[in-house]
TrEMBL record:
Family listed: Belongs to the NnrD/CARKD family.
UniProt gene name: nnrD
Annotated InterPro entries: CARKD, Ribokinase-like
E.C. number(s) listed in UniProt: 4.2.1.136
Organism (species): Agromyces terreus
Pfam families found in the cross-reference section: Carb_kinase
Entry binding sites for AMP: K182, G183, A184, T185, T186, G211
Protein name, per record: ADP-dependent (S)-NAD(P)H-hydrate dehydratase
Top-rank EC class of the record's enzyme: lyase
Positions of the YjeF C-terminal domain: 9-279
Length: 282
């Protein structure tokens, strides 16, 4: 029987964003720990952290190489550098998995052992399955193929491109985690059989760094919904679909602000507050 994919819409997204209340403080709203970026890709860290702040979060802690930390703090001085207690992790964007230092691997393993929800992207995708915390992986097509083949689940780019939803579903089942497979159509599913689909409202999204922005949005949503996730790990699937929806709408807003013209990844991060505000006003 064909899998039914539920189209994630504005009302679904609205149900998964939240504004702070009178009795909130920065800690109760949720803290996101971020291990992203590298000497080769410092921008990925800046993009993810910026997007997390713009999605609305209590605090972001960033852990990474000194030069990357400097870039992150120059762009987002509200970021706190170094370790501390967090309610969710974003790991791997802007990291080459073949060039991880022992120090970096230690930081990643420390995060994975924490037990709080984890978003695994790019250079941390191969660590899936080394921990038990609620997890969503955010590969693009090539990354999914690499991951599946490394787990002895043979697949080719052509096969996955021909039926991305089915491969996302299979990956979720085999790997035992939620999967967000990126593309013009983004498929989000989990081993429990939740299937969400988000169609991008603009193809200007197909530009460098927009996946890093998505990671930041999703990390922030996971951290701010930590209470709900503690009681219902499957909620991560809906938060992932919401992140993809918000990212798409932010790209559309950023493009519309320029007459329907192109957007760069940081423009999308900067447009996220408008999307969240409109959802909350909804
Ligand atoms: N600002 C930042 O810091 C950014 C940082 N980023 C970070 O970069 C990391 C790697 O992410 P990624 O998705 O690019 O890596 P990956 O899946 O290995 O794809 C490589 C494939 O692309 C292909 N390819 C390359 N050039 C090509 C060309 N001219 N024309 C056609 N094909 C070309 C290449 O093919 P090949 O050259 O091997 O034939 C290979 O198949 C990741 O950590 C991410 O977070 C990004 O988010 C960007 C912004
Ligand atoms: N043709 C397209 N139309 C709309 N959105 C796209 C298209 N191609 C990719 N995307 C979206 O753009 C983002 C690209 O992410 P990713 O491949 O990780 O790039 P990067 O690593 O450069 O950030 C994803 O959110 C994906 O869903």
């Amino acid at each position: 029987m064909a899998t039914e994919w539920r189209t994630w819409n504005v009302d679904d997204a609205r149900a998964h964003v939240r504004a702070p209340l009178a009795d909130d403080d920065k800690y109760s709203r949720g803290v996101l720990g971020v291990v992203t970026g590298s000497v080769e890709f410092p921008g990925a860290a800046v993009l993810g952290v910026s997007a997390a702040h713009r999605t609305g979060i209590g605090l972001v802690r960033y852990i990474g190489p000194r030069n990357v930390r400097r870039e992150v703090l120059a762009r987002r001085p509200e970021t706190v550098a170094g370790r501390g207690r967090v309610q969710a992790w974003l790991l791997g964007s802007g990291i080459d998995p073949t060039r991880r230092s022992f120090l970096l691997l230690g930081d990643l393993q420390h995060a994975l052992a924490d037990g709080v929800p984890v978003v695994l992207d790019a250079g941390a995708l191969d660590l899936v399955g080394t921990h038990t915390a609620p997890t969503v992986i955010t590969p693009h097509l090539r990354e999914l193929v690499r991951l599946l083949n490394a787990r002895e689940i043979p697949s080719t780019i052509e096969e996955v491109r021909a039926d991305p939803g089915e491969w996302a579903r299979r990956a979720a089942g085999e790997l035992g985690v939620a999967v967000l497979l990126k593309g013009a159509t983004t498929y989000v599913c989990d081993p429990s059989g939740n299937h969400r689909v988000v169609t991008a409202p603009t193809h200007w999204l197909a530009t460098a760094g927009t996946g890093d922005v998505l990671g930041g949005i999703l990390g922030a949503l996971a951290a701010t919904h930590h209470g709900e996730l503690a009681g219902d790990a499957e909620a991560l699937t809906d938060l992932a679909a919401t992140a993809a929806w918000v990212q798409g709408e932010a790209a559309l807003r950023a493009s519309t602000a320029n007459g329907g013209g192109p957007v760069a990844a940081l423009d999308i991060a900067e447009a996220v507050p408008g999307v969240v505000g409109a959802l909350l006003a909804g």
